[in-house]
Each structure stands twice: as C-alpha cells, then as structure tokens.
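Entry type: protein chain
Record version: 2
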Amino acid sequence: MYRDSITSKNEIKKVIEVSISDISEKDFNPRKSGLLQENVEKLIKAEEFPPIHLGYLDDELIVVDGYHRLSATQRLGKDKIQAFITRFDSEAELKKQAFLSNVNHGIKLSELDIALNIYEFYILERKEDPTTTIAKVISDYNIPIRRGRQLFFWTVLNRVILENNCSEITELSKCEEYVKIISNRKEKYDSLSLVLKDEIRRFYNKYNHLVILELRQAVNLFLEGKDYLEEKMKKEEEKKIELEALKENLKEIAEKTFESPGEVYFENDKKEEEKEYIGTSMTIDLETGEVKEVKKITELTPVKDELMPQKQNNSLGVSNTLNKIGEDIMTIRRLQTLKRITFTEDDYLTLNSLMDRIEDIKSDIDTSGFFKHNEV
C-alpha cells in the first residue's frame, strides 16, 4: 500500500499522510524509560509539528523517529499523521537509525538509555557476526569509544549480573574493574555462566565500598586466587613484626650511644597521655626505618598543653640547668663521633657562643649559688 511512497537514498523526503491504524505497535523507541510526558504536552499545545519517520520492514510501518509526535497526534484525536517512509532490510538496521535519530539531537537520550541500547546492539550484531567487537559497535553508533565502553560495562555489571536497572549511572570506572574478572575467565558478555555471575555478586557485595585503587588491587588479587582483606591483614602483621624488630635494633643503638640510656621512648608511639621521661627519645620513619632523631632526656617534663597558660618552673636551680646543658652538649659530641650528625661552620660558631655564655653566667655566680648582679 505504501511501497510507492518510500523515500529512497539521496531522494527528497516524500511526506504523505499515513493512517495511524496502519502503523505497527512494535516499540523500537530507544528511550527505555518511555515517553517524556512533558514533551508530549508541549506538542499538544503546539498542535503542528514536523512529520515523523517511519521504517518499512517486512511489509510493516514501524516508527523510527517521532514517538512523542505520534502520541500527541493520538491525544488530539486525529487518525492520520504526516510522515515519510524509508526501507530497512533488518531490525538491527532500523533500531540503529532510531538510536542515531535521538542520541545527539532534540531531547537527547540519557546515559541509561545509551548504555542499554549499546548492549542490545552488541547482542543483535553478534547474532549476525560472532566476531563483532564492542569497540566496533560503539564506533558504529557515534559514541566516544571510552565513554561507550564504560556504559557497556555498566550494563553488563548492573543489568546482566546484578539485575539492577537503576536510572542513575554512577562509578563507571569501577565497572571496568569487575569486567576484568569476566575477561580473565574468557566468557562472553551475552552468555555469562551462573557460577561466574554468583562469584561477581559476592565479590561486589564485599568490596564495592572500596575506592577505585583499592578495588583494583582487590580484583587483581581475586584473579590470583587471593582475598584482599586477608592479604591486607597479613601485610599489617608482617609490618608490625618488622617494626618490633626495628625497635629492638634501635634500643641496641641507644645503649651503645649512651652509657645509661634508661627506657627507650619512641615518639612515633601513640599513648593516651604522652610524657617525656628519663631515658632516650627516638624519632623514626616507620615506613623506611630511618632514624630521624635520637636524644637523651634527663628530666621528667610533661608534654605542654598549648591551650593552657604555662607556669614557670624555677625549682631546677641554676646548677642543675647548667648540668643539663652540659649533658646535652656531650650527647651532641657522641652523635658526632658516631657520625650520626654533621657540623657546619655555623654550628661550630653557635656552640662556641653558647659555651662562652655559660662561662659568663658561671663567673657571675658566687659560692652560695646567688647571682652577684641583678641582670644576667
């Protein structure tokens, strides 16, 4: 009936009136969530709009582009619609044109629509050519390869494996990591085994909370037959053992460095109430084991609370203070001898200036321990 009205390639569109009753009810609309009612209402108010595109396939007229316009025409009570018709040789070809007609113009398809369509196209084309690749399908449908692969993998994970048709597309990069498991097992995306689906579901429920880098590690370990959490616990235990061994070695260093090192205190250790005490304080890099600082502590000194006003402590006395300074200088000399520290010219000048200042102070103190002058 409509064969003579078909528009051939490179021809000017032959627009005719088509009875709505002659149009097939087959739905090849690429919008998987259905019509946008807001758009239908706008078309109803306009009353006039461009002709729709119908495809002629197996003696049927099937809507290629214009589902909203067709719905608006029906709502207006009309029984005919303006349309042009083109011939198609296969369902896949018609679906492809319907997709291309909506993907980049008018009210564009959502990412969910694009994702689900790419997967359907892949399945259809694999039936005709089993060697069809995902990349070829994506490029044929004018989608950027990178984005298209991510959306395809999202569909495989959420729709095929998790059976989740949620409308929000999130964490696309994570989906690529799960697909590595499928690739490793050499299974086809359109015919995944129930065993593999179940494995991925369990893995997903256990590890999907991880950030992408951690998830990547978890997937790689899974492919090696290992569990991410178990391996993480092993490493933490090994690190703890190595740290304890390191601390023992550092205690030996402290004993060789000082005649009476007292208790060795590691500043990296976390305590509920940290206090300095008589002994040896060491700062180490827990990652490399490198000793950052070694110092001798000869007085009990609580850690200062920067939020509280500090009280001056005058109970030490001048003699004790000078003795402490002397011991610190001896500590510096020992560390220099062990080649744990190096002196610059400025360091020598500073140390000499300090020694001169100590001699000045000592000369101003009489035998009773009181200052001879009012100022030091």
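Comment: Residues 270-278, 300-315, 367-376 have pLDDT under 50 and may be disordered.
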